Amino acid sequence: MAQQHLDPTDPTAGPAPTGDALAGYLRAQATEFLRALRLHRETGPAASNGTEESVDAARALRRSVRRISGSMHTFRPLLEADWSEGLRPELAWLSGTLSMENAYACRLERLLLALHRLSGAVFPTQTGMAAAVSPAGATAGPPAPPPTDRGNLTVGAAKAGALLERQLTLARTRAHSTALQALGSSRFHAVADKVAVLASEVPLTATATAPTTDLRPLAAAAEERLTDAVTALPLVTAGSPYNAEALIHGLSPDPSPHPQDAPWHQVRLLLRLHRYAREALYGTGGPIDVRLLTAGQALDRHRDASEAAAAAASAARTPRIAPATAYALGVLHADQRHEVEAARFAFQQSWQKQVVST
Amino acid sequence: MAQQHLDPTDPTAGPAPTGDALAGYLRAQATEFLRALRLHRETGPAASNGTEESVDAARALRRSVRRISGSMHTFRPLLEADWSEGLRPELAWLSGTLSMENAYACRLERLLLALHRLSGAVFPTQTGMAAAVSPAGATAGPPAPPPTDRGNLTVGAAKAGALLERQLTLARTRAHSTALQALGSSRFHAVADKVAVLASEVPLTATATAPTTDLRPLAAAAEERLTDAVTALPLVTAGSPYNAEALIHGLSPDPSPHPQDAPWHQVRLLLRLHRYAREALYGTGGPIDVRLLTAGQALDRHRDASEAAAAAASAARTPRIAPATAYALGVLHADQRHEVEAARFAFQQSWQKQVVST
């Protein structure tokens, strides 16, 4: 709702988008999936390291899967039920499987950068890190460790960095194998076949093919789910800087100490669905809503920091670590929880702007 | 300067304050010192625990010492040089000695409250803590440990709390003995005698007694030293929330990792001198400048959090502690460094208001 009267170049001003627009969008995303898959096969598993092309291919694959899956969710009543119900869980499986390797790599990079920042050291070769972030299928061998310059760190920070590197690299290697296995499985081939069909023929219902069917009510419902979820967030607290909310329960005996993050993660997903619905209605070539983008980036940062904080806390529970290592992991955990708080503040600011300017 | 045109009830609107005003202020503060000292002797060392009166007496003693010492600094050219040079270092010694016990008690309280907050536990008996914060000379025996409810804490947080309690209580007990010894020393009696003289006769120079001598240029110079020091602070950074500046060097190998705090501590002292100079000029009964008060409170919080963070880091260097203890101390350290950052933000906000509204 909030976005409908914002822009002089308002894409909503045209005729009502119908089932044709949805079909066009899904076909385009399916085509993109097939293109990325082909590129991925050409550059992927066989290559000995993560080239730029294979990174791009893996990212494009994840992007298209998310968009197909999201649109199927938002516009479910317009798509054939049997086909939908069969494909959606498979896309969720694929999306989850393909994203893990990259997630572990990014988490490690984030934590090592934070350790260096906390040590007052400039990270030696920021560009060197990029190579370590290779996508699923890009490299079969064990990934090269990031070039951490231990000379600048205290013993505790260096040991904490080494421990995180060990644990997250192991997790990443496993995720890599899992993704490789998945991409070679018959389960994946079945998904790819279905997406190939989607690229030429979208299974719309009879209602959807009627020329009078308007996509907007379903897109508006998706937006409403988003605004409802945002309304339920503690935005007043988040908008007051240094509220020290995110670190509450930082030392809680509760093994899952951050249920407070869940509503924010939920908003992140709903914001994404809203963005994809806008793309389906008005095309991907239209003007980008910068504020939606900013809000989404804040929530991505929220999620990343939340998971990085959990990884630091989990590493601290490794048996027989030195107290100096545990201390550094404690500082790191708290630092990432403050990143969580900072991300909430950033989201609140961008969202506030959105509401004010409508 | 900034304050001179703010208030319709502007105290600066009257006739120029002269040496008489300074003499009156110093006499009043000296009288207050003697009153507090008498009260302290009546309620103090003999009492078995820190009563409210003895806490008040110790606080009043510190207050008057700070004010006499500060005024002697700001208005030095108007006071007899020999007398000044003899008394000022003695007051600094006394002020330092008397403040330590209270500082350790407050630091422990701050850290235990933070540990409880970080554990998501409500502090069981906040009022119970007050008894633990006893002033110099109030209690001769070992202070009772604060009633921490360990049941709500993880093992690490509970152990960290116990370690801090042990270390800071020991430091506080030592400070208590030192203060007691100081108050019984001939060095202290010499200071008290000099202050007793001051209560009846302020040793002003010939210039100061001239009816045309204006106190305001010296007070303005004190204010200028303050505003210069504030200008040198990184206020732009401080005004941008979650700048993550205060935790830089949080894991630095440098044993004195927070030189960034020093300019803020310096501004805190200069702000206090400015406040005392205003009191000397316009009396203590005049309207209180709320913004100066707010800015001063932010800087007090900055100092307290900075020292609490250092205490947590120092406790983490205790040999043979458990990793869980060290982890909790790391989280605690980072939490207090974020308090430092939050205090800088609060100072920036209150100072900005001051500048804007003039």
The radius of gyration of chain A is: 22 Å
The SSE string of chain A, one letter per element, is HHHHHHHHHHHH
Mean pLDDT of chain A: 85
Total number of helices of chain A: 12
Shape of chain A: globular
Instruction: Determine the fraction of residues in helical runs of chain A and give it as a percent range.
Output: 55-70%
* N→C terminal distance of chain A: 9 Å
Which residues of chain A form runs of ≥5 with pLDDT under 50?
1-9, 124-151
Largest interface: A-B, 43 and 43 residues
Please provide the count of β strands of chain A: 0
Percentage of β-strand residues of chain A: under 5%
User: Oligomeric status of the shown chains?
Assistant: homodimer
Which class of secondary structure composition applies to the elements of chain A?
Answer: mainly alpha
Q: Sheet with the most strands of chain A?
A: none
Descriptive keywords:
mainly alpha, 0% strand, 358 residues, globular, homodimer
Structure notes:
Two copies of one chain form a homodimer. By secondary structure, chain A is mainly alpha-helical. Chain A has twelve helices and no strands. In chain A, helix 1 (19-43) crosses helix 10 and helix 3 (81-118) runs antiparallel to helix 5 (155-184). Residues 1-9 and 124-151 of chain A have low confidence and may be disordered. The A-B interface holds A 115, 117-120, 152-154, 156-157, 241-242, 244, 247-254, 257, 316, 321-335, 338-339, 341-342, 345 and B 115, 117-120, 152-154, 156-157, 241-242, 244, 247-254, 257, 316, 321-335, 338-339, 341-342, 345.
